Q: What sequence folds into this?
């Protein structure tokens, strides 16, 4: 028997005989089921992704020509401000929370989250906050000081729009904090008794790191925004130099959250990729413990790098050097993950389906964003490219090439579990091809634009940059087109796709040990870990594993210290019984 | 003939290294280097580019190779070998990136020091007196200051320029004159940001040329305190160390000349300094790099790096012109001047070419 069969057989008692079926109306109301809330998060945030994407294409259309000829400069500034705010706070962050909601209880064998009502409250803060933000366009005074909203500029542009922006981001931040408390308590308290932390799936480790980061940093942003709203509405001068305030203090408070936000946006998908690559390569994840602890290291280091966004704001030299070094060091745990994923693929039997293609695309494009990130950490070079298109290129390689490709990989991978049906592979591959071409066409030329002297957030530019900007604009249209095969494919497959079965990918983690879609309370009896979460091919351990050694510290085989082990009481492999 | 895999690895390694070395120096991604500092920054960038190209090719190469070589063959439903991880390998790929980033950090540190980032005098030399902490003048939202000294009676050149800018019909809709604190000639309010000071060999010595730069929505104003010139375009001579003292009148702006590789935010209420030595003659553009409002993209000013003689000539022209502006010129009787000559200093400030004026006359 293969490992997947062993795990499934051991978990037959956990399957519910009558799983219960959700009615479609349930997804439109206040429900406390973590799976309903998870899907509500994912669908809502995807709608906001489409709105933010339209804004991105409007911005790119303006930038197709050097002159201001498509929208007015005021509207242009509102468009990029809303684009960034929507993509960060209404798409990537809530999508991470959506997957966490759906997957964490299933992966740890729980029936629901620790606080189901709080969970629903956290979700239901998002739609009104998003609608509020977009409604500012209808009011005619959309926020236009950038998603960073640096004072004094944010204090002298439209008061109504800026007020709406602050209110909306505060609501979304609160939602994020409530969600994180829930994830942390669920992860700490609701695991099946035999699952110690070194048996948890890597997605759970990633969400543990993410949630800790949210809890520490988001309140600081909230404080900064509340002070900013006092400056805006009540006439205080916390950040206003005319009353003795200091605009740079706002920048510190803003980036104390907003740099960790980058890791809040990428860590969940590092976790998802760590699930997807081993399953579709049919090999154990390489260096489970190294990947798990590198998430924690990123989470901690992510808290002490924020001032690298302020190298040109005028902070003391030694502080610049401190933040340069901490920023550079983050490359080390990130490198551990990337090399471990490569080593997982190496020598495997890679199934090149849509989920795996997006995962490979994730590693390939994220690495470009990672490399340019190290370059940006070098203070003398950052002084040249800060606030230019080089930074725009970098952040889109990280957030689009990283997070968004990770989101799509995760959607393709867990679609059968969420809907009970397989997604169409052909259109998935079309989606992948268009996305990779569009993304590189849009963002690769931006590196050169920034280095040569094109600054960010401008509606008009030097005509010598026209050709490269045209390429970027056409690339962004390809990205817009790439979304249609995905939307149609997802809806069609959800309704008419081939039935998936409980475990179509022959995976070992516990979410695949229940029905598809999962039963209303997930499991009938407590599921068990008859195999470790990534023990693919363990039945072939006797055939000889490369680099195996009797010493667990030197070995690459099943006795390696880095492995996530099964529950010793019920382990299928006799050598794992203790 | 079967070539052993160790030979293949070696060959690939050599090709990869050569490709990285070549690309790191022939990327063509940077504009001309017009200051001494720019040359140092470019050296750092090229080094990082060599390392980056190597890592990029390595990762993408492994990804693409694995996707082809290790793809699942049709009908094969077996799992791969149970390789769970390997501590020595993990140590290897922890240590190598760590060494690389420490190397880049040390190199960056050295460049940063060379361009004057650690100049200990920079912060102390900047004017930080009580006088500079006051802000007055009309339009000021400042109610009280820490100082009781009477307001200065010197003409506030920035104020005049700012008033002129306030009349510009192009920006009428986006002005918020009542909310802008008008500052003096690039003062700080006591908070001086140490930024890029003198390079170590020039530490402790004053720069050879001072330029005060004020950013306001959406223009740059340059004043030369040694000569009293106020202008809308910056001229600097080759080979003389220039110190820029900058601040902003309304919102945050940033001083960036791509060819100088230097950028510094001009923050209202703060004074920031950078020093550099121009080295390559040419016409460049000072770009505002910090979002400052809807017309941020239009906030540009010409920067001219020119030989010493040309610079001195320009200073003389400006001195004459500015004297006339202040009605202090005694050597020339305005009545003796033709309309064009009389208007020249004013129209030049407004960016109007003599040819255009000529057309208007006729």
A:
């Amino acid at each position: 028997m293969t490992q997947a069969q062993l795990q499934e057989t051991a978990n037959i008692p956990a399957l519910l005989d009558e799983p219960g079926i959700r009615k479609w109306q349930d997804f439109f109301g206040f429900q406390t089921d973590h799976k309903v809330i998870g899907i509500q998060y994912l669908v809502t945030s995807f709608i906001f992704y489409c709105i933010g994407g339209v804004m991105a294409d409007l911005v790119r259309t303006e930038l197709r020509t050097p002159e201001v000829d498509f929208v007015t400069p005021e509207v242009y500034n509102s468009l990029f401000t809303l684009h960034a705010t929507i993509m960060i706070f209404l798409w990537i962050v809530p999508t991470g929370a959506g997957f966490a909601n759906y997957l964490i209880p299933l992966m740890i064998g729980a029936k629901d989250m620790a606080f189901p009502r709080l969970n629903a409250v956290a979700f239901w803060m998002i739609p009104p906050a998003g609608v509020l933000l977009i409604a500012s366009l209808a009011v005619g005074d959309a926020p236009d000081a950038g998603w960073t909203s640096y004072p004094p500029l944010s204090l002298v542009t439209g008061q109504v729009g800026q007020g709406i922006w602050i209110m909306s981001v505060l609501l979304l931040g609160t939602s994020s904090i409530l969600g994180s408390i829930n994830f942390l308590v669920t992860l700490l308290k609701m695991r099946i008794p035999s699952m110690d932390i070194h048996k948890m799936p890597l997605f759970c480790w990633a969400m543990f790191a993410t949630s800790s980061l949210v809890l520490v940093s988001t309140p600081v942003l909230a404080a900064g925004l509340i002070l900013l709203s006092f400056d805006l509405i009540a006439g205080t001068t916390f950040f206003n130099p005319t009353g003795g305030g200091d605009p740079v203090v706002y920048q510190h408070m803003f980036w104390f959250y907003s740099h960790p936000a980058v890791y809040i946006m990428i860590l969940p998908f590092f976790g998802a990729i760590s699930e997807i690559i081993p399953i579709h390569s049919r090999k154990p994840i390489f260096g489970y413990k190294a990947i798990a602890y590198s998430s924690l290291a990123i989470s901690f280091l992510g808290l002490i790098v924020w001032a690298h966004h302020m190298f040109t704001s005028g902070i003391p030299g030694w502080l610049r050097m401190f933040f340069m070094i901490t920023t550079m060091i983050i490359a080390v745990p990130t490198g551990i993950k990337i090399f471990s994923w490569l080593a997982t693929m190496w020598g495997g039997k890679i199934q090149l389906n849509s989920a795996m293609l997006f995962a490979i695309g994730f590693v390939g494009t994220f690495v470009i964003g990672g490399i340019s990130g190290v370059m940006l950490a070098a203070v003398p070079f950052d002084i040249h490219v800060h606030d230019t298109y080089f930074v725009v290129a970098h952040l889109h390689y990280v957030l689009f090439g990283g997070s968004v490709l990770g989101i799509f990989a995760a959607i393709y991978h867990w679609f059968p579990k969420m809907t009970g049906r397989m997604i169409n592979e052909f259109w998935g591959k079309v989606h992948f091809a268009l996305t990779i071409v569009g993304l590189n066409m849009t963002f690769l030329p931006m590196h050169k634009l920034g280095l040569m002297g094109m600054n960010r957030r401008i509606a008009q530019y030097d005509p010598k940059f026209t050709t490269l900007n045209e390429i970027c604009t056409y690339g962004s249209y390809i990205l817009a087109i790439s979304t249609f095969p995905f939307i149609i494919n997802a809806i069609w497959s959800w309704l008419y796709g081939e039935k998936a079965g409980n475990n179509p990918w022959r995976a070992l983690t516990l979410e695949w040990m229940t029905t598809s879609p999962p039963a209303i309370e997930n499991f009938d009896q407590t599921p068990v870990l008859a195999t470790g979460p990534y023990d693919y091919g363990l039945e072939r351990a006797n055939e000889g594993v490369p680099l195996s050694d009797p010493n667990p510290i030197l070995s690459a085989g099943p006795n390696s210290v880095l492995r996530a082990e099964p529950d010793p009481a019920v382990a299928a492999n006799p050598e794992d019984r203790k | 003939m079967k070539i052993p895999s160790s030979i293949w690895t070696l060959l690939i390694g050599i090709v990869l290294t050569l490709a990285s070395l070549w690309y790191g120096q022939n990327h063509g991604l940077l504009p001309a280097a017009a200051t001494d500092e720019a040359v140092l920054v470019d050296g750092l960038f090229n080094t990082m580019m060599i390392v980056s190209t190597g890592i990029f090719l390595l990762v993408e190469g492994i990804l693409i190779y694995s996707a082809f070589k290790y793809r699942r063959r049709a009908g094969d439903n077996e799992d791969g070998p149970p390789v769970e991880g390997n501590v020595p390998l993990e140590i290897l790929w922890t240590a190598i990136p760590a060494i690389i980033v420490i190397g880049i950090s040390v190199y960056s540190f050295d460049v940063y020091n060379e361009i004057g980032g650690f100049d200990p005098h920079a912060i102390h030399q900047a004017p930080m007196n009580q006088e500079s902490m006051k802000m007055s003048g009309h339009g000021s939202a400042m109610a009280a200051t820490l100082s009781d000294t009477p307001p200065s009676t010197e003409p506030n050149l920035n104020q005049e320029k700012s008033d002129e800018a306030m009349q510009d019909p192009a920006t009428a809709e986006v002005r918020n004159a009542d909310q802008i604190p008008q500052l003096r000639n690039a003062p700080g309010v006591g908070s001086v940001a140490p930024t890029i000071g003198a390079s170590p060999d020039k530490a402790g010595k004053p720069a050879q040329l001072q330029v005060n730069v004020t950013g306001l929505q959406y223009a740059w104003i340059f004043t030369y305190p040694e000569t009293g010139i106020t202008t809308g375009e910056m001229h600097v001579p080759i080979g003389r160390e220039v110190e820029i003292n900058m601040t902003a009148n309304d919102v945050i702006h940033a001083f960036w000349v791509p060819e100088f590789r230097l950028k510094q935010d001009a923050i209202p209420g703060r004074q920031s300094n950078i020093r550099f030595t121009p080295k390559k003659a040419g016409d460049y553009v000072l770009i505002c790099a910090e979002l400052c409002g809807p017309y941020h993209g239009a906030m540009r000013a010409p920067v001219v790096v020119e030989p010493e003689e040309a610079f001195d000539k320009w200073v003389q022209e400006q001195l004459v012109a500015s004297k006339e502006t202040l009605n202090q010129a005694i050597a020339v009787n305005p009545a003796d001047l033709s309309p064009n000559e009389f208007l020249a200093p004013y129209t030049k400030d407004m960016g109007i070419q003599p040819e255009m004026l000529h057309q208007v006359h006729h």
Notes: The CA atoms of residues 106 and 415 of chain A lie 14 Å apart. Residues 32-190 of chain A form one domain.
